[in-house]
Amino acid sequence: MKNKNLLIAVVVAVVFGGAGFFGGMKYQQSKNPRFSNRILGPSGSPNFRGAQNGQNFRPVNGEIMSVDDKSITVKLSDGSSKIVLLSDSTVISKSESAAKEDLKVGEKISAFGSQNQDGSITANTIQLNPVFRGQNQ
Which fold has domain 40-128? Predict the structure, then answer.
């Protein structure tokens, strides 16, 4: 009798565990992808195909050299600089949402947006303190 009760308890536990696991998988699949997956892709590598407004260029990565209300100047790894224009619709984030006030000289950023004819970028999204896998920055 004890063995039968133990067997029934084990079978019930396996069934409920499997159902819970399956339900959790379906729930996760129904959620929107995380912000980092939209920008970097699930593997952590840049997702250039997902560039907005049909622009397909490398994001601007580097350290903020100067900040004003309309733009930031970013020092690139090769020593050059790039101006990134900000608009009211520019999304600025860290691991959570951020604001223009969080853009400070010395911060590392990645900027995604449209390249202008003068070489500057009009940012759609700016990521503060981005993680670059395989790079020591």
Answer: OB fold (Dihydrolipoamide Acetyltransferase, E2P) (2.40.50)
